[in-house]
Amino acid sequence: MDFLPDLLTVVEWATVVVTFIMMASGMPVCVSMYKKRSVANVPYLLFLISTFVSSLGLQYGILIGNSTLTLINVVSVCVWGAYVSTYILVSKSKVTPLLKLLAVAGLYSAHLYYLTILPSNDVVLTVGKYLLFWCTILCVIPANEIVTMVQEKSTKCCNLPLLFGGTLSGVVWYLYGYLMDDATIYFPNIPALLVSSVKFFLMFIYGLPSKQTAKNSSSAVTRDSQNNVHKVTATGITRRNK
Hints:
The chain is an all-alpha fold and 242 residues long. The chain has helices spanning 7-24, 27-36, 44-64, 67-90, 95-116, 120-140, 144-152, 160-179, 183-186, 189-206, 209-226, 235-240.
C-alpha cells in the first residue's frame, strides 16, 4: 500500500484545488464589472485586503520553505491584483481607489521596513504573527452579513454557493495547518468556520436565499403588472449577488 498518498499530501492537494476555485469565484464579478463599466456592489476593499494577505502569505511561504503555500500565494497575488487593477481601470473616479491602494501599499512597505531592523531570528515569527492577524481579519469580515440577516430576518444577502465554497476552503485550510502543526495557517479558519456555522443556522431558521429571491422576484413582477410599470429594476438581485 506504499503507492497510496499520505493524508498530508491529500489535504495539501485539496487545499490547492479548493483555493484556486475560490479565487476563480471572483472572476464573474470582475468580468461583469469590466463589461458594464460599473463598480457598483463590487467589494474593492476585500480585493485589496486579499492582495495584502496573499503578499504576506507568499513571504511566509518562502521564509519557511513551504512550496505549496508559496505556489498558492503567487497565484493569489496575481489574481487579486488583477481584480484590483480592473476595478481601478473601470472606476470613473480614480482618486479614492488609488488612495486606498496606496494606503495598503504603504502598510506593506512599513511591514517590510520593520523586518529589516529585526534580528534575523525573529523575522519568520514576526511575519507569521502579521499573517495570523490579517488572515483572521479577512476571515471575520463575512460576519457583517450575519447582522444583516438577523435584522432583516432573511438570508437574501447571503450567496449560498460562496458560503459552501468558503466553508469547504476553511475546512481544508484548517486541516492542512493542523497537519503541518502551524497555528498561523489553521487558527484563522476557526472563526471563519464559526461564522459559516452561524449562517447555516440562520438559513435553517429563515430559509434558503434562492427561495426568497424567487418569491421577491415574483412579487415584483405582480406589482409592476398592477401599476402598469414597464421599467424593471434588478437592484435587489444585484445586491444579493454581491
